[in-house]
């Protein structure tokens, strides 16, 4: 079946599912493959559970007598091409966001600001990969007039593949840092892959990049594109400065050289969120959101999913940033924690994953930073930190650490919790 014919089925049944347990009436089930499963095996169950059609790519499960089954060469490729066809048909303006750190927070802030005056489709949760991106695009309707699509990558070429599916009109790279080095091979590999977003935009006649002027690496990567610049320097499209970040970020911004500043008091923890908020200001202003509504949107946003969250418990004050970690974000979080006022500071840090051959040296650099800053109340979770030269408390995993906390509870501390999601530091939050 041609994509154009399959698209007609999609117009009749515009909900796509890849889970045979979650099949609403008149949905289309797409049989994807995982490391330990073959979605084709669940096609019949999906039809029985309510799906109108099942797209499969394994002839073993195909019943030619059942008109509800559609056999294709590759289900994932079909899903991606269907999403691209849908994107082209609607023709909605799309902003694509990638970067090492801050891309999810930036996406959330931008979507919150734009939603003040626009009907915005945006990436939910962690659906920023080769499956999540097309599924997000297929949720787009003619009621939307803008889309904000987050793109993640852990290997070379992945951003390029996603841009071919999304065909964005605008791009924003939050930053370039040391993450997924096991997959990318080096920092330069990270830079090249993230830069594939701008490479795509350079093929467009009106390709436009939102650029943090304070990050000269990103600025150089955007050469050849129309640049909408934000940062701290006077005269940019929008410029601003941090008022305070103790612990919540308050900043002010203005357009160009206007004498009038708008002050914004956020619920975000950390000075490192300033550039994320400024990106939202720049994008919002570009798409016609006035200063008053930008302020309202940013001040109403509360982070979730263990990202830059503050929580006061009966026992302690917690700064929770345990969704993910890499050397760049870990250093920024520790530096910010050093600056904020707080009694009896303590740090709970988990391993940084997927750093490959640089893992040992990068974990040791974190230890050296902690020593340099004079931190003494530090608890480290994971085998990588345990292998470093340090005098802090070390635990092989979160289970062992949780057992320790039950027998040695912490009280009256200001605690930074930071680590890779795979370490599962969120499991000890209720013990703090």
UniProtKB/TrEMBL annotation:
Family from the record: Belongs to the MurCDEF family. MurF subfamily.
Mur ligase central domain ranges (all copies): 97-283
Every Mur ligase N-terminal catalytic domain range: 16-86
Domain Mur ligase C-terminal: 307-384
Gene Ontology terms for molecular function: ATP binding; UDP-N-acetylmuramoyl-tripeptide-D-alanyl-D-alanine ligase activity
Pfam families: Mur_ligase, Mur_ligase_C, Mur_ligase_M
Principal EC category: ligase
Residues annotated for ATP binding in this entry: 99-105
UniProt-listed Enzyme Commission number(s): 6.3.2.10
Catalytic activity annotation: D-alanyl-D-alanine + UDP-N-acetyl-alpha-D-muramoyl-L-alanyl-gamma-D-glutamyl-meso-2,6-diaminopimelate + ATP = UDP-N-acetyl-alpha-D-muramoyl-L-alanyl-gamma-D-glutamyl-meso-2,6-diaminopimeloyl-D-alanyl-D-alanine + ADP + phosphate + H(+)
Protein's recorded name: UDP-N-acetylmuramoyl-tripeptide--D-alanyl-D-alanine ligase
SUPFAM superfamilies: MurD-like peptide ligases, catalytic domain (SSF53623), MurD-like peptide ligases, peptide-binding domain (SSF53244), MurE/MurF N-terminal domain (SSF63418)
Pathway(s) it belongs to: Cell wall biogenesis; peptidoglycan biosynthesis
Function recorded in the entry: Involved in cell wall formation. Catalyzes the final step in the synthesis of UDP-N-acetylmuramoyl-pentapeptide, the precursor of murein.
Gene Ontology biological process: cell division; cell wall organization; peptidoglycan biosynthetic process; regulation of cell shape
Keywords carried by this UniProt record: ATP-binding, Cell cycle, Cell division, Cell shape, Cell wall biogenesis/degradation, Cytoplasm, Ligase, Nucleotide-binding, Peptidoglycan synthesis
GO annotation, cellular component aspect: cytoplasm
Transmembrane segments: none
Compartment list: Cytoplasm
Keyword Cell cycle: yes
């Amino acid at each position: 079946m041609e994509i154009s014919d399959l698209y007609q089925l999609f117009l009749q049944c515009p909900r796509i599912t890849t889970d045979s347990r979650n099949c609403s009436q008149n949905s289309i089930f797409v049989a994807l493959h995982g490391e330990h499963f073959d979605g084709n095996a669940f096609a019949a169950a999906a039809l029985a559970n309510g799906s109108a059609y099942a797209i499969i790519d394994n002839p073993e499960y195909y019943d030619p007598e059942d008109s509800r089954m559609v056999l294709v060469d590759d289900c994932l490729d079909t899903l991606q091409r269907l999403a691209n066809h849908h994107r082209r048909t609607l023709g909605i303006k799309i902003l694509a966001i990638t970067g090492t750190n801050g891309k999810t927070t930036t996406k959330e802030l931008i979507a919150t600001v734009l939603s003040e005056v626009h009907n915005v489709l945006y990436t939910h949760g962690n659906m920023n990969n080769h499956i999540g991106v097309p599924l997000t695009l297929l949720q787009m309707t003619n009621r939307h007039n803008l889309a904000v699509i987050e793109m993640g990558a852990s290997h070379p070429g992945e951003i390029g593949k996603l841009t071919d599916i999304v065909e964005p009109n605008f791009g924003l790279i939050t930053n370039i840092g040391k993450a997924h080095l096991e997959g990318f091979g080096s920092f330069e590999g990270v830079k090249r892959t993230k830069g594939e977003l701008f490479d795509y935009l350079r093929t467009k006649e009106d390709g436009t990049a939102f650029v943090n002027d304070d990050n000269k690496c990103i600025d150089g990567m955007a050469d050849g594109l129309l640049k909408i610049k934000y940062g701290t320097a006077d005269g940019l499209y929008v410029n601003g400065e941090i008022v305070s970040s103790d612990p919540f970020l308050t900043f002010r911004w203005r357009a160009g050289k206007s004498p009038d500043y708008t002050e914004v008091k956020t619920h975000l923890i950390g000075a490192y969120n300033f550039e994320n908020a400024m990106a939202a200001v720049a994008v919002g202003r570009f798409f016609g959101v006035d200063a008053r509504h930008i302020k309202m949107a940013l001040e109403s946003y509360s982070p979730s999913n263990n990202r830059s969250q503050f929580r006061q418990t009966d026992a302690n004050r917690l700064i929770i940033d345990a969704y993910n970690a890499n050397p760049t974000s870990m250093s920024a979080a520790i530096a910010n924690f050093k600056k904020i006022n707080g009694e009896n500071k303590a740090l709970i840090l988990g391993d940084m994953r997927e750093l490959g051959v640089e893992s040992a040296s990068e974990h040791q650099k974190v230890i050296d930073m902690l020593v340099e800053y004079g931190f003494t109340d530090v608890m480290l979770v994971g085998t990588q930190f345990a292998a470093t030269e340090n005098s802090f408390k070390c635990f092989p995993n979160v289970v062992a650490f949780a057992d320790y906390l039950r027998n040695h509870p912490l009280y009256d501390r200001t605690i930074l919790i930071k680590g890779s999601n795979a370490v599962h530091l969120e499991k000890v939050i209720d013990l703090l």
